[in-house]
Structures are given as C-alpha cells and as structure tokens.
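We close this part of the discussion by returning to an individual protein. Part of our work consisted of pairing the sequence of a single chain with a tokenised description of its backbone. No coordinates are needed to read the tokens, only the vocabulary itself. The amino acid sequence and the backbone structure tokens for this protein are reproduced below:
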Amino acid sequence: MPEPVISAQGIDLTFQTADGPVHALKDVNLTIDRGDFVSFIGPSGCGKTTFLRTIAALETPTGGRISINGQAPDEARRARAYGYVFQAPGLYPWRTISGNIALPLEIMGFSRAERAERVARVLDLVELSGFGGKYPWQLSGGMQQRASIARALSFDADILLMDEPFGALDEIVRDRLNRALLGLWAKTRKTIAFVTHSIPEAVYLSTKIVVMSPRPGRITRVIDSPLPRHRPLEIRDTPEFIDIAQQVREGLRLGHSYD
C-alpha cells in the first residue's frame, strides 16, 4: 500500500477582511502518497496557493484537519519536513548563488563544511555547478528559479512544495525546466506538490492532477495519470496525453457549474 504523506480532511478556510469574510477553501479532502508528483490546477483565486500554504503552516484552516507525515503543519515545519519554492526566486542580490542556497543551512546551524558539501550537491542537481560564485543579477530568470529550487532542496526535506515556479518564464525555458524538474524528481524520489495554471504543464509533470473550482475552492476532480514516469516532451503529442488534458478541461468546466 502507498504511504500517505499529506492528508487533508474537510479543510475549510475563511479569511476575515475589512470588506467581510472571504471563503477561500471549502471541504477539501485529499491524500498525497509518498513519491507522488501532484499538480493543482484551477482558475485564479480558486485556493490553489492557499491550500499549499496550509500544508506549509503559512495559513491556518478554520475547519477540518491536515497532517504531514502524521504531524500537524506547525510540527512538520519545525521538523523541516518540506522545502518551499515560491513564484519568484526571492534571492538576496547581495549574496552569491551559493550564499543564497546556504542561507537556510546557516539558520539551521549546519557547519561550514557541511554547508559547502550540500550546496555543491544541490547545485549539481539543478545543473548550476560553476555558477555558485555568481550573483542573482548575473543569471537568467530560469537559472535564478533553479537556484531557488536548489535552496529548497539544500536541507534534504522529503517534500517539495512549489507555487507556480515557472509561470513567469517563456515557453522554451519552461519546457527545459519541466524536463529538468522531472529528472530531479526521478533522482531524489521526493514528494512534490506543484501549483500551475497550465494544463499541458500539469499533465506533463504529474502522477496525479487535482482540479479545483472557483472560490470557494473545492476539489472537483482528481485524475491519476497513466503516463510512464519517463516522459520526453514528445509525449505531449500522444493520444494518452491529449485524453488526460481533456479530462482536466472537463474538470475545470465542472468546477464552474457550482452555485
């Protein structure tokens, strides 16, 4: 039996604002197993990022229960159960790439020697060996995002939370980073939760695709992918790929049918 890593049961989340309550998530139920690559897709404002933030203990549900490795989100955060990759790289311009990647390791108290070993290892994983001494402004947007992924990998958490990390990149760079991310996932065997607005990206990357409705965010459909784990870009032209993409579109249409 697969081992559950993230379990959400009846998650509701309502924000209190000056203009009144905003119901962001409603009755979200989901299980993510160890080694899964799960993409969340839905219209803007549907709660994809909010749900990711509840996993990371950056938001607190107003109802329901969520656990990570059997722990509450706060406990999982203190146990360093996950790395988080944001939409923007968020690199400090006065630090080198190696210095940016090493920052969480410094905060966690790793020795200088272990920091250097870990930084070198994750730079190699994201194909940035030789760029550790550069500053962020000396790298392209795609390379900066790879450095951000390396930073999230540096303390070797089993779970990687990724909030639309390639959304601002052009299609050519995005394709390259999608391939690189699949290679990274194959090497590390990590569990990945990935937010995207792109149907092709969700289908290409995922073992499981979670389709969400407009606010309040509900899960309208969970699609298990039959595609093999080795996925050249050409797989996007196959009937199997096109069929899964159509299932995602149907799930998105279903989401708009809610009252």
